[in-house]
Structure formats: structure tokens, C-alpha cells
Design a protein that fits this description.
The complex is a heterodimer of chains A (about 350) and B (about 120). Chain A is mainly α and about 350 residues long. In chain A, about 65% of the residues lie in helices and about 0% in strands. Chain B has a single domain, classed as Methane Monooxygenase Hydroxylase, Chain G, domain 1 (Up-down Bundle), CATH 1.20.58. The chains are: A mainly alpha (about 350), B mainly alpha (about 120).
Amino acid sequence: MGAELIVIAGKLIVLATLLLTAVPVMVWVERRGAAFIQDRLGPNRVGPWGIIQPIADSVKLLFKEDLTPAGVNRWLYFLAPMISVFIAMLTFIVVPFGDGCGVTILGQPLGSLMVASELEVGVLYLLAISSLGVYGIVLAGWSSNNKYSLLGGLRASAQLISYELSMALAVLGVILATGSLRLDEVVAAQSGKLWNAVPQFLGFVVFVVAAFAETNRLPFDLAEAETELVAGYHVEYSSMKFAAFMMSEYMNMVTVSALLVTLFLGGSTLPGVHLEGWLGLVVSLAVFLGKVAFFMWLFVWVRWSLPRFRYDQLMRLGWKGLLPLATVNLVLVAVGVARGWTWI
Amino acid sequence: MTEYIPVFLFTVVALLFPVVTVGIAWLIRAGKHDPVKLEPYECGIEATTFAHDNRFSIRYYLIAVLFVVFDVETVFLYPWAVAYRKLALFGLVEMFIFLAILIVGYIYAWKRKALQWA
């Protein structure tokens, strides 16, 4: 039991470090990426290439006045950013972020690098927890006593629940092909054949689009919509509470990218690469981070390239576009598995 | 229950992190409040009503109801997906019947313009 706990704690520390480091790095990548795409310089004064800028920003935010406007529901106003960060952090623990490759620590096999490695409900846990994330946004919008916030919160809730359906259906195709809810088995099932993104291309596309909507990123950032709602659900937030919303947004991006990589792109594996021991562990971690980094860049790339959807277009795409597509994908996979096609 | 130990551990970490950061910010926060500063951010004119006294579109409610229907559908499909290989042909036929019933409902909702925004 002791060794087991140490292994769990070790994985937990690695994961928490990765998640919390990803946030400032992503803020920096986003600002520099935006500057690159728009042909300007971006932050370049604090540290080399401005890499310390996010740290300076968070120190600044820490010292800012923590304002609670008049007329807000104080309890919910305080609770909303907490829920956002809490949920954003909690979703990641069923995602395997590397392969143990037979390494043992204190006689305890490391197995797949995921914190909750024994959890059989895997994907169900992930869907259940991540759908709670909408509470943070809705409560923030509702409790702020601000019309912009209220509209942002309402829009976000309808948007998140609409795209969650398509997302869950797209994931279902992968579960069907794997026959297990555990994400490490999803990864294992993809080694030695085509990654799920190829046979389930429809599901992959649906998942990518829904991922953008679920993280409130452009072209689906109607909850924030700077040009019409100022900043949407977090207009009234300042100081660390505002930072909490920003952190949860970036953590959600990390989680959803990791999920995308795990479900459709073979997770921490590369075809033809089978390494053992510590070298294998480091390589698998690097492969996983590399794949995730690509999708993180894709988020930035799309954000600064595409305009925002109108709300009716957003709903039409979600309900009349993605939902039927995801269902078609599911039926195709079901028929394929029934016919005994092993490449699916 | 041992498989849930990591979940509980991480729950504690995930709870402590926002509480501690916001707590530190609260301890060293700066500034004085005055009535003008505490007004809701709008256009500079004092707000006469609470924000949630205003009405909003009924569509949001409709979407929520539709969501419940289709989300329950997907939740039902998950155990089916895991057991699919054991169910063989029976599972395939069963799913087609289940989906057909839902698709009828979906088409009905579409025809009644429930999926149409404004």
C-alpha cells in the first residue's frame, strides 16, 4: 500500500506540475502567436522573447484590487471561479499522459502514466466531471448582476450543453471500437493498426469542432464575445478571481487536446517505436506532449484566423450539423465492428 | 473503493489550489471602494434594475429540455458500447431500434422548428 501511494503521489505531482506550467506557457504562446499572425512584435520586454511576461502578469493580478460590485450574490460570485478551476483541474486524472514501459518504482510497476490508473469508468468520469464545468460559467454570469455577464452565461450554458451531445456521441464511436471505458486501453487498442482518426474520420472532425465549442474558443467564443458582450460572463471579475477563469480556460484547452490525442491519435505511442525502461518512459511523455502541443497551437492558430459565429449559426451547426454526423459515425462504427472489420 | 483514492487526493489538490491563490490575493489586495466604483459595469448610467430581472429568450429553456432527452440517450448508449462485442447481432439490431425511435423524435423537433434559433 505504501509503495502504491508513493507511485500515485508521484504521478499526481507530475500531472499538477504539467497542468500548472502549461497555463503560463500557453498564455505566452497565444500572445506571441497572435503577434506573429498579425505581423507585430507581441510581448518581448520581460525576459528573453518576453517569456517571463505571463509570470509578471500573474504577479500584477495578485496585487490588483479584488472588487465585489454592489448587488452581486456574494456567495455564488465567490464560488463561480473556484468551481471553474476545480473542475478544470479534476478532469485530467483519467487521461494517460505517458507509458510506464515496464519501469518499477519500489517494486511497484508504474503502468500507464495516469493518476487514476485503476478507475474502470474512465471516460464516463471524464464526461461527468467536465460537464460540471458549465456551472462555473453560468453562476458567474448569473451572480454578477450585470447584463453582459448574464447574456454571456446564458449563451455559454446553451452552447456547452449543445456541443456536449455531439462530443459524447463522437467519443462513443471510439469506445465502441475499443470495448472499454479506460483511456489507457483506448491507447493500447490503437497501437499496431491505424489511429482512430482515420477509420473514424467523421467522429474525429465532430470531436475537434465540439472541442473548440466546449472550451469557449473562437470561432465559438460567444460567451465572451469581446466586441458585443465586452468580456461576457467574467466582466465583473478582477484580481485572482479573473485569473481563475483564465486559468480554467487554458487548462480546459490542455485537457481537451490531451483527450483528442488519446482518443483519436494514439496517445503517447508512435507507430513502429517500442522502447523499454526509462528511455521509453521519457520518449512516450515527449511524444504525448508533442502531439498535445500541436493541438494547442491549432487552438491559437484558429483563434486568430477565423471570425466568430453568429448565435443562430452556432446552434444550427451543433444541432443540425454535428449531431446527425456523430450519429452517422456511430452507426458506421457499429456496423463495421459487427462485420468484424479489425481495422476499425 | 481503493481505485478512487487518486480521485480523492487530486480533489484535495484541486480544491486547495484556487482557494489558496484567491486567498493570497485577498490578503494582499489593494484599493478602497466607493459607491461609483461598485456599480455594475455598463455605460456609465446607474442601473435601475437587477440584471436577472430582465427577460431572456425562451429558446435557452427549450435547448436545455432537448439536451436532457439526447444526453440521456448517449448515457444509455455507453454501457451498450462497452458490451457490444458480447451482444453480437442482437446488440446491433437493438441499437438500430433505439436510435430509430430517437431519430423520429429528432425529426419531429426539427419539423416543429425547435432546433431553429429565432
